[in-house]
Design brief:
Helix content is 77%, strand content 3%. It is mainly alpha-helical. Strands 2-1-3 form a 3-stranded mixed sheet.
């Protein structure tokens, strides 16, 4: 059905990861382990923060949101990728494909905005410590978090709507392991100039703006710490910001490679996207847990409560 010009496409076929013949079993168990660690790690972080009143602060409120996003991002593509590797189940319906497009851009955009909000939170904590709880009160935190989710839903809805309204009557074979806008749009038999312009503008503008805001926050933080001229201030700032900087690097690095190097998409696309979808959500809770004394204390408390309950 995929090659007839007059036949409407009702489903797509995902080719999966290129050049992996004979490695399907190894990759399946590797990605399955990553996915289970992502669910477990982020779930434990979320539970530990909710269960410890000492962590009911703005920073950990945003970290809870990040854990939910990491679980969602990993779940957008990993289950289908596992199905492809295990039993060659490559078929995905048109609705399922559009759902992947929507939720990938919705969750990725939300995480981009949330990381920006977290950078602002660190700026207020270091540069205005005496007014921190006044500025970052519960209402402000709720507005910043909900605003990130709502703004991203509009962003993803626009992109998905434009993608869905295109007629697909050529090949239904997606040369990728998930439905993303650019691999799917190649299969449309209509003018895609408007969608491609909107997609490049939105996908480029949102991360770039967020990155510049994060950069501005850290420039102000460094400037404030230099003015303090204190080794203790340096250590406190490093302890406060190191985890966030590591997560920002892991998030924006793959995004930059995927969407700023279109000519290298065939080479860089699959491994970078897999790293972004499968590996990064697993690393984020480990980064925060290993570098944060409060989180480690909450995890020990959570472990003690479960042991006591048994």
């Amino acid at each position: 059905m995929g090659l007839g010009n007059c036949t409407v496409v009702t489903h797509f076929i995902l080719l999966g990861i290129p050049n992996t013949d004979g490695l399907q079993t190894i990759l399946f168990f590797t990605f399955l382990a990553f996915y289970l660690c992502t669910l477990l790690g982020n779930g434990v972080i979320f539970s530990a923060i909710l269960g410890d009143p000492r962590l009911h602060t703005p920073m950990y409120f945003f970290l809870c949101n990040l854990s939910v996003l990491d679980i969602g991002l990993s779940s957008v593509s990993t289950p289908k990728l596992l199905a492809i590797l295990w039993d060659q189940s490559r078929v995905i319906s048109l609705g399922g494909c559009m759902a992947q497009v929507f939720f990938w851009h919705f969750l990725a955009s939300t995480e981009c905005l949330l990381l920006t909000v977290m950078a602002y939170d660190r700026y207020v904590a270091i540069c205005h410590p005496l007014r921190y709880l006044l500025i970052m009160n519960r209402r402000v935190c709720s507005l910043l978090a909900s605003g990130s989710w709502i703004a991203s839903s509009f962003h993803a809805t626009i992109l998905t709507s434009l993608t869905l309204t295109l007629p697909y009557c050529r090949s239904n074979v997606v040369d990728y392991f998930l439905c993303d806008i650019f691999p799917v749009v190649k299969l449309a038999c209509a003018d895609t100039h408007v969608l491609e312009t909107v997609a490049f503008t939105n996908i480029g503008l949102v991360p770039l703006t967020c990155f510049l805001l994060i950069l501005a926050s850290y420039v102000r933080i460094i400037y404030a710490v230099l003015k303090m001229n204190s080794a203790h201030a340096w250590r406190k700032a490093a302890s406060t910001c190191a985890s966030h900087l590591a997560v920002v690097t892991l998030f924006f690095g793959p995004c930059a490679l995927i969407y700023t190097q279109p000519h290298l998409s065939q080479v860089l696309g699959p491994p970078v996207q897999i790293f972004s979808n499968v590996v990064t959500p697993m690393l984020n809770p480990a980064i925060y847990a290993l570098r944060n004394k409060e989180v480690k204390s909450a995890l020990r408390k959570l472990k003690g409560d479960r042991t006591h309950a048994r």
